Amino acid sequence: MRIRASSKWVTHTLLLSIVPVMLFGAFIYLMGSRIVQDEIHRSSMESLSQVRHQVESDMVNIEQMTNQIALQSDMIAVMNVQNETTLGAFPRTNAVRNLLSQIKNVTDTIHSIYFYHIGQQIVVSHDIVSDVHERRTFKDSSWLDNVDSMIASRRTRTWVSPREMVSLNGEATFTLTHIRLLPMLYKEPKAAIVVNMKPDFLQRTISRFPLNAHGKLLVMNEEGRLIAQFPDENGKDGSNETFLREMSLSSQEDVRTVRVGKHFLSVLQSEKNGWTYAIAVPANVPRQQVEGFKRMIVAISTLLCLLAVYSAYFTHSKFQRSIRSILDRLSSARPAGQTQLQGDGIAVMEEGINRLLSTVQEGQSKRDLHLSLLRSYYLQALIHGNAVDMSRLANELDRSEMFPLGKLCVMIAQMDESGHSAFLKDRELFLFAVSNIGIELNKLQEQDGATFRIETVITDRHAVLIVNYDQDPEASKLPVTLADRLRSVVKQILKHTVTIGVGTGVDSAHNLAYSYRDALQALQMNMASAYDEVLPYANMTLVAQKLVHYPAAEEQELLNALRSRNGALAERSLKAFREELDGEHASLQMTKTFYLQLLVAVVRFVQEYEEDPAAVFGDNPYESFFRMQSVSQIDNWFRVWPLRPILAYMDAVKRRNTDTIVRQTVELIHERYASDLSLQLAADNMGISASYLSKLFKEELGETFIDYVTRIRLEKAQNMLVETELTMQQIAEAIGYTSVQQMFRVFKKKLGMTPGEYRESAADPKSE
């Protein structure tokens, strides 16, 4: 009886266990879906930030490139060709074509570059020189309307987004176009530079979509028009219109992921140009990642039901008799030698138990697989600072002692682009190999006596290694040592170099995001020069501070000295600029960057007075600058050239301006001496202050403005007194005096006699 009661209790337990299993499965299914959906938002934002940064970097590079093109002497010469000389026959036109061809070939983001001469209506590209309206040789002319609108609104440059670009065979594609009017500071525009980006510029900015889904990337301008999309689809299902409506609702502070129809749409807006970037991922992708949980729970529930039925068969006699009577009726056709019912039941039960064990093992295997996936998501969330949203999973993983030691540090390994390795076209495989090598470093701890653990995460561009080590102060240098060992092993095994940024140590897994950002900053600060190196963030902090301390005060002092034509002050300012950099212990690369920024400021100062810098320097200052190899060379070059030409030019400007102002003022006096002429009125006509005009007049003519006007009026009055019979009142009005008494006072003061006495003396020959 006890055995039978126990069997019944087992049966009831099996039946009741189905409910918590289904509830637990539903909970895990929903939690997994939420986790993966959160991962879509995180990875989408990361991808969108990368796309936005790449697009804006390409646009800035193109803008800087057009500025450099505009300063080329050949470009300036062709721009200044008048309409009398045909542009196609001008020798320097070929030099411009070669320049455009070189820039197009070395820049992988540019589709084509045009130089447009406004006066002759001629367009020059790397392969043709054609009339802009000649459709047989040049069909891409939709940008002309933008040039006209720029001239009307006095703009110097603009981006046309998007623009329909037409090839010679008539094929139309959409692209982004940058237009720059020349010269840079123009009174009347003479030419334009038109740069077209490649139509697939958007595809080049993203390597893959979140969760490897077949998503869609869209960019919308500030006017709500679709600039570009990848993949390039027509949107026949109307999804594009829906996405654009949702994107138009975003603001600069709005970073979000929403459900739009059958997609998850992540939206990010640029603060720089107001463009909106979005990634759409099919909504069924997140649930596919956790669909294994659902199948596993259904299988376990089904097997539990079957097990409860088998248990009830051997436990409840009434149920057993009913099943046995059915089997007896079906056994009449059974051969005589077949196994009895009891034997059949035991065999079936054994087979069911074996199937159950097999299913449980399969479920355990799937659980381990999904736990590994969730573990990877958790580490991703930790380094990006999103682990708060995964607290339940974090508690579960903490119990497994993922980070048992006291300190943590992040290392970021980045594949070097140079070299001829087989991994150049397969970055993901290389990062996977680096990650595995990092894990294998754990096995070396017994050799060195160091205790540490390493967890790895692979992102789009980096292999991230999280080092967990003791809080012992002697172990503080362990991450740098491990990074150098990893760099050496990767170079030896994979035959390709890697650069590793090492962050600062933190005491908690929830602070890993700070260590990750430090390591990433160490890489980014040395992106242009680092190669096969370990870059600890602790060594980069001084450099980061120096990046902020540009000698802006010394630059302004130098510009003021040039404006006032003070050569000695300019020398002292340049010396102070150099001493400021030496005091900060700036590197050669950073010093050259600062001097280049100073050169740009000086060239802009010159362009305030002369739109063509070649008229001042006689050569391209940027080309001369880039030939310098040391700080001493750059400093000596600055002292001799371009400062001396600028000071000489400013003296000439001063001399020319002074002569022009004084000459025009004298002409104004001779034209308007008979009216109410004042110093302020003359200064207003010259566009300068009255005090400055008075100073120039005194320096150039040796007398004041009032004295000069008085002298001219007296000379005119003397002529009228001798040569005419006009009355004193008429003469006073004719020379600009309001009354005869005023003319009498001036005559008496300057000549020592009255106008009447002067007329009498001039009429009496004896008086001479």
Automatic annotation (TrEMBL):
Gene Ontology MF: a single term: sequence-specific DNA binding
Transmembrane segments: 12-32, 296-314
Keywords: DNA-binding, Membrane, Transcription, Transcription regulation, Transmembrane, Transmembrane helix
One Pfam family this sequence matches: HTH_18
Residue stretches making up the HTH araC/xylS-type domain: 663-761
Highest taxon listed in the record's lineage: Bacteria
This protein's name: Helix-turn-helix domain-containing protein
Organism expressing this protein natively: Cohnella rhizosphaerae
